[in-house]
Amino acid sequence: MTDRMNILFITANRLGDAVLSTGVLASLVDSYPDAEFTIACGPYAAGIFRTVPRLKRLVILRKKSWNWHWIDLLRECLCTRWDLIIDLRNSLASRLLMSKRRATKGGSTGKHKVIENAAILGLATPTAPRIWTDEAAEDAASKLLPEGRRLLALGPAANWPPKQWPIEKFASLATILTGDDGLLSGAAVLVVADKSERGQIVPLLEAISSDRRVELIGAELAIVAACLKRSSLFVGNDSGLMHLAAAVGTPTLGLFGPGYEHIYGPWGPQAAFVRTLENREELLARLPNLAAREPNLMQSLTVEKVAAAARELLRPR
Predict the structure, then answer these.
(1) Where a domain ends, among 121, 149, 173?
(2) Is residue 198 part of a domain?
(3) Same domain? 77 vs 108
(4) In a domain, 128, yes or no
(5) What is the CATH number of the domain that holds 115?
(6) Where is the domain boundary, 87, 121, 155?
(7) Side by side, which strands form the sheet with 82-87?
(8) I need a surface site. Which of 85, 110, 154, 257 has the fewest CB within 10 A?
(9) pLDDT in tens, the chain (317 residues)
(10) Are residues 158 and 40 part of one domain?
(11) 127 lies in a domain?
């Protein structure tokens, strides 16, 4: 019996970039059915890779001063002769490892990250990002979510305040979409955030009655993915959660203002974005004079515009 092919996949630290890289990983999983995978990523993104088929090892790269985390990677991987190394972080460390073949991502091209990542394998048609979930995560989702009820998932937090759609608008949107005449009438509302973001979203939690609200704050990413997969619609800020929702096949509407929707828009046939009246350059020009009473740059994106985009996204094709 021949030894299995060894593939080292080095991907991003941030959740969004890590999710977008899973299209390349999915292509490798499909193309090399006998291969074993070692995946190197940041600690926060690790949860989406624990259930990758034929995962041999997960190497957590915790950022250190003077780039010493790359020394950690060398220690973990130096003794293996690799058949293929895919390095989406363009690190020197990957070039010091023995490999029959390697592919290293270059600088930004201005194209969508999914297309840019696919180019490293020479794929004319990119493989869509893919998230694998296991039985434990699916069981946990079954216990957390109301049975037999549709679910509106919201990702109301953001890692940068200027691109966070106002919380009160998320609350109004939930009322419109799940009301008696709403697109998802009677649906429960799943609010998803990291535990460090709870302070940002308290007003939204308080605006949704307890019998309709499902809180998923600080949960493991595999469980988050399993819950999002069961949702009828996800609406959220330009964030890693937005990409996670799209990657599990949930109809996903991303909210954009000062971000790059042509590079980081949600990817997939059931994904769309809606943005502010102002373009990115106009919004960023206001940052030096941003008043305390206006903590973000998303004010011109109305609830009515988002609700209309949600209806269009879910309209039968």
Answers:
(1) 121
(2) yes
(3) yes
(4) no
(5) 3.40.50.2000
(6) 121
(7) 55-60, 36-41, 6-10, 82-87, 99-104
(8) 110
(9) 457 899 999 999 999 999 999 999 999 999 999 999 999 999 999 999 999 999 999 999 998 888 889 999 999 999 999 999 999 999 999 999 999 999 998 888 899 999 999 999 998 899 999 999 999 999 999 999 999 999 999 999 988 889 999 999 999 999 999 999 999 999 999 999 999 999 889 999 999 999 999 999 999 999 999 999 999 999 999 999 999 999 999 999 999 999 999 999 999 999 999 999 999 999 988 877 655 555 679 999 999 999 999 999 999 86
(10) no
(11) no
Tokens of 83: 């058949």
158 and 299 belong to one structural domain:
yes
Amino acid at 215: E
Q: Which amino acid is at 274?
A: V
Full domain range(s) for residue 276: 135-314
